[in-house]
Amino acid sequence: MELWRDPRPGDAGLAAFREVYADPVLVNGVPTAVEVLADRAWMMQSAVGGLTHHLHDQFAAPGRRAFAFRVTGRHIGPLATPLGVIAATGRAFDVAGVDIFEVDETVGRVTGIWAVADYLGMLAALEAVVPAGALSPPAPAPAAAANDGEPAPATDHDAEILTGTAADTAGLALATDDDAADTHVAAGADAAEILVATTTDTAHGLVPTTTHTTDIHVATGADAAEILVLQRCCWVAEALANDTLEIPALHESLQDVRDWLDSWSVWCVRMNGRLVGAVRAHRAGTSWEIGRLMVAPDLAGRGLGRQLLAHAEAVAPPDVATIELFTGAHSERNISIYERAGFHRTNALAPPGAINLAKPVKRS
After folding, report:
1. Do strands 322-328 and 287-295 pair parallel, antiparallel, or not at all (unpaired)?
2. Could you report the per-residue pLDDT of 343-364, keeping only the tens digit for each?
3. Cross-strand pairs, 352
């Protein structure tokens, strides 16, 4: 984090970044010049007073490093964002984030970064956006995410700190211009569509309004890019909770998502046009298997997870006997929520690091 706390100016600073990062480095799958990272660090230094980085947790695996962190400071200078340059407001902000680094151990350099941060929270603190408000009054904790074959997806609550676009571990990789918005923010426009407004379009749910509508519909290929970015955002917290990065949801490509959209039944939730949740299900023998239950982090605790789970259960074929799902063996909160929803642990075969939960289908 030293590079981001106190970046050296000029060529010396750029050389320091190249000692740590490959050039180019993949940021959420997009090749990004190291110079973009260095420019971002210098800009943050001039735009944020008292810039401080707080490392909350970290763990390492072969070729991987993961960090949970917060960045705090006061907005004292021009700050470039996808909304444009925001003039100094004097307001304080506190942004949480999680980064996963891919590391080439042979040369000791970071070759890839998967990153999410509470960028929306930062923009709201600076009053650059105005949240549209709650979808509904806060409800009891919604059902945790089902995980069809990998340890513990994020639940509505688990993903709370992950709102926003990509952020580098210490630098908050907000776009510095239009090009950076395409190359350095969670797969560009796809991430912006789900996680943060780049305009005052009501589809993003960030303009002043009291109208909040949801639309649960069958997902199509047109939804694939939004689903991809949302699931990456939602599953990072569970990677940390279960001490593993070997979770398919974090590594799938856009084509992978398109493929399972064809082979599973998949539904999305939209609020004022914005894709904010999804779930999938399919027949597995005499069971109906539910998975990839995900909800946008900034809508945590609003009941969307429960709505999606209930919808997936309700459309189970009439001839199946049970409804099943998988979640992480160490995700005690997820397990507790599912058990309260009528699921129980079974001894059925589950992927490494996961457990199977099931419930009988209730017939009216």
Report:
1. parallel
2. 999 999 888 888 999 999 987 6
3. none
